[in-house]
From TrEMBL:
Domain spans labelled EamA: 41-168, 180-312
Organism: Nocardioides guangzhouensis
InterPro entries xrefs: Alkyne_AA_exporter, EamA_dom, EmrE-like
Protein name (record): DMT family transporter
Superkingdom, taxonomy of origin: Bacteria
Stored SUPFAM superfamilies: Multidrug resistance efflux transporter EmrE (SSF103481)
Gene3D superfamilies xrefs: 1.10.3730.20
């Protein structure tokens, strides 16, 4: 799934995104047809939600590493067309250090951990777990970027991880408790959050699509040790599964980034951020329809508690909200 966070001012919106990319630049002053931004964000949410379902489905035919490599190669090729159309990126040596770290963590570790996690928990549960990313991002920003650690953040952190604990202790559809699957999904959320903090300074110097493309390409290179598995498993996989793998690289990865960036230009960051709460419900519905599975009953309660924690953590003090427009710290990947 793609996640995004932003800081808005009267002159500019700067947004850092997850599963897929980061947009930084002035908000468009042109007014498109009213339905276009809504259509764009709707496509984004559906693609992000579908990624969780596709990963769960493909777990039968592809191992976590092979699936990561296949998706990243397709995504890198698609993003490369768009990125190079805007010119050749010229990162500095310092930029390359951050890009390599983001590529390894966000596109490498994130995808492999999520793919393995979804072999153990259903798609809806995974989507709910990834939604704790905003709390982790806010915590990291307070620790490493000098942003204020508020009471709301502390309470939100406690609520979010209480929800994670409830999910971890809930019974899986197969009748077993798979805490490891929950931990792997939480690891994905954690490395995404770290990557977003690393990415924030880059978007002031490089175009968002260049950052995303380079990091995705680095992630694909990191996953090259799984090339043998990908070739072998692709040869044995049915044609439908091959197309699902291509779908993951094209739609939730490349296209969803583009539609989300377009929506950001024509909608307020706060309004757009609220829509990301729809990703888990959409994922759950898709899981029921396409996979005939849903999260265990207690996981719903845990997911709701985690989302309440995210909402509380994102709440800005009144004095601060008068100066800075509140903006979402995450929206969902990829996945």
């Amino acid at each position: 799934m793609w996640l995004a966070g932003c800081r808005a001012s009267t002159s500019e919106n700067r947004v850092s995104g997850v599963s897929g990319g980061t947009y930084a630049g002035p908000v468009s002053t042109t007014t498109p047809r009213a339905w276009l931004p809504v259509a764009a964000v709707s496509c984004t949410l559906v693609f992000w939600a579908s990624a969780f379902v596709a990963i769960r489905h493909l777990g039968h035919d592809f191992s976590p590493g092979a699936l990561s490599l296949g998706r990243l190669v397709v995504g890198s090729l698609c993003l490369g067309v768009v990125a190079l159309g805007r010119g050749v990126p010229r990162p500095s040596k310092g930029d390359w250090v951050s890009l390599v770290a983001i590529g390894i963590l966000w596109f490498g570790v994130y995808n492999v951990a999520l793919n393995e996690g979804e072999r153990r928990v259903d798609a809806g549960t995974a989507a709910m777990l990834i939604q704790v990313s905003p709390v982790l991002i806010a915590l990291l920003a307070a620790v490493f970027l000098g942003e204020r650690f508020t009471v709301h953040l502390g309470v939100g952190l406690a609520l979010a991880f209480s929800g994670v604990a409830v999910i971890a202790l809930s019974t899986s559809p197969g009748g077993d408790r798979d805490v490891l699957g929950v931990a792997l999904c939480l690891l994905s959320a954690a490395v995404y959050s770290v990557s977003l903090i690393l990415q924030k300074p880059l978007v002031g110097r490089l175009a968002a699509v260049h950052v995303t493309w380079l990091a995705c390409t680095i992630g694909a290179i990191v996953c090259l040790p799984f090339a043998g598995q990908l070739v072998s498993e692709a040869a044995d996989a049915p044609a439908a599964s091959i197309w699902w793998l291509v779908y993951l690289g094209v739609f939730p990865t490349a296209i969803a980034f583009t539609t989300y960036a377009y929506a950001l230009r024509h909608m307020t960051a706060g309004n757009l951020g609220v829509t990301t709460y729809l990703v888990p419900p959409i994922t759950i519905v898709m899981g029921v329809v396409f996979l005939s599975e849903a999260p265990p009953t207690m996981a719903y309660a845990g997911g709701a508690l985690a989302l309440v924690g995210v909402a509380v953590a994102r709440r800005k003090p009144r004095s601060a909200s008068k100066k800075v427009a509140a903006a979402p710290e995450a929206a969902m990947l990829k996945r």
